[in-house]
Write a structure and sequence with these properties.
35% helix, 121 residues, alpha+beta
């Protein structure tokens, strides 16, 4: 049990920035119990109009501007402190993984794919 977090890509057109479904997706990144990143993604989800009360098993698309903001917040250690049942604790060594994800996500967007985040807890 715990917070499992994923970034995926899809070549399918999506119809909304949040709460969309896809038929095919390829895993781009996986995190286990990185609650501060999850909190950042939840803030993005809400800013884009997402309304799922738990922010669980829902999708939020990430565009180039989102990735720029995420990179800035990671480098400035400005991810929001986030807690939850079975969420664990964000560790400093995750910064390199986060930045590697951003690099891969930018490459996927450059190829015309949609990058999105989801979680399951």
């Amino acid at each position: 049990m715990g917070l499992d977090m994923y970034a995926f890509t899809t070549a399918e057109p999506i119809t909304a920035e949040v709460d969309f479904t896809t038929e095919t997706a390829t895993e781009l990144a996986y995190w286990r119990k990185h609650p501060n990143l999850h909190g950042w993604m939840e803030q993005l989800y809400r800013a884009k109009g997402g309304s799922d009360a738990d922010f669980n098993c829902v999708n939020v698309a990430l565009d180039a501007d989102d990735l720029d903001r995420l990179e800035r917040d990671i480098r400035n250690q400005a991810l929001p402190h986030t807690e939850g049942f079975f969420f664990g604790t964000t560790r400093p060594d995750e910064i390199d993984l986060d930045l590697a994800f951003i690099e891969k996500a930018r490459a996927a967007i450059a190829e015309g794919k949609t990058v999105f985040y989801t979680s399951w807890w």
